[in-house]
Amino acid sequence: MSPADTALPSSHKAEPLSAKAPTTAFGKGFVMDSWYFVALSRDVAAGSLKRHEVMGEPVLIGRTKGGAVFGLRDICPHRAAPLSAGRVVDKAGEGETVECPYHGWRFRTDGVCAAIPSLVEDQAFEADRIRVRSYPVRESQGMVFVWMAADPRSDAAPDHEPPVFPGVVGGDARLVESMDFDSHIDHAVVGLMDPAHGPFVHQQWWWRSEHSMHEKAKAFEPRDLGFAMVRHAPSSNSRAYRILGGAPATEITFRLPGYRWEHIQVGERQVLALTCLTPVTETRTRITQIFWSDHWVFALARPFLRLGVRAFLKQDGGMVNLQNEGLRYDPALLWIDDADKQAKWYQQLKREWARSRAEGRAFANPVKAAVLRWKS
């Protein structure tokens, strides 16, 4: 894809929203009409129902016994029992449905009510006029994504598909770690893409420290719904890369609504480190880090890598808690170039996405190619 050509195709233009466009203020609102990561495919077993929370909404993610993944609002419209506490059943003439644990109401995977067991034969009640909200769900590359629409009443199909990530190799994911941060997704996004905090927050012997800081200059260019630090050799003070051997080359990409991945190539071998950010509520964000690789080092070093990933997440989470002490006073935040340029780009991307959806036009990436310089 050409860096200069990052608008969505005309076939993906959004219909104008009748409702008021969502807020784009930093730390407020969410990127709507987007795909969010909710689970690994391997964690959604056949016949299973599991409750998730996305943007403060209860979302049931399930899989039929036939293998199809689906998403429903996890509230029965009868007496508000969570449908995820029920079961998947297969009744003659109905196909596979979700049975509410309270009164046995059954719902198809598209949300339409298939049966109300308490009704008797001569009671004229059209059960199929009742429905719960259904969410478009996709399985891709061993992950499950849910579409969060700006208008919950709309039945329109998503106008684009979930992102496809490079380097998903070596079979199933080799390493997965997840943690909830007590922050809005905006703060989680800019915290994880911040290039200057590493020497102070992550002070492991195998990474880097403030005593090894030096100036860096990295080229960036726009990408589909985001931007990338173009492929380059890792910094000399990033010791962890040395275990890969050879001459690793890495590219780091960010894409709306909250995906950041580092794709490393060492000869013919690859490593993909993907971070998925899922807004649970306005003040809680789930960070899921997933690693794939066909490099031999993962087979030997996975226990140590897991410890490292957990340490990084805990350190970032601890800093979020410290930051919250200041954020509760609602201070104005000071952004500087070039270290905070990626954070600025994220805010521009978020605003442009909301405007393009509200105006029913193609998204026009506001990011311009640039070389950024900072010390870390």
UniProtKB/TrEMBL annotation:
MF terms (GO), sorted A to Z: dioxygenase activity
InterPro entries in the cross-refs: Cholesterol_7-desaturase, Rieske_2Fe-2S, Rieske_2Fe-2S_sf, VanA_C_cat
Keyword Cytoplasm among record annotations: no
Iron is among the record's keywords: yes
Every Rieske domain range: 35-146
Listed CDD domains: Rieske_RO_Alpha_N
Domain of life from the UniProt record: Bacteria
Keyword line: 2Fe-2S, Dioxygenase, Iron, Iron-sulfur, Metal-binding, Oxidoreductase
PANTHER family attached to this UniProt entry: 3-KETOSTEROID-9-ALPHA-MONOOXYGENASE, OXYGENASE COMPONENT, IRON-SULFUR DOMAIN CONTAINING PROTEIN
Name recorded for this polypeptide: Aromatic ring-hydroxylating dioxygenase subunit alpha
Species classification: Bacteria, Pseudomonadati, Pseudomonadota, Alphaproteobacteria, Caulobacterales
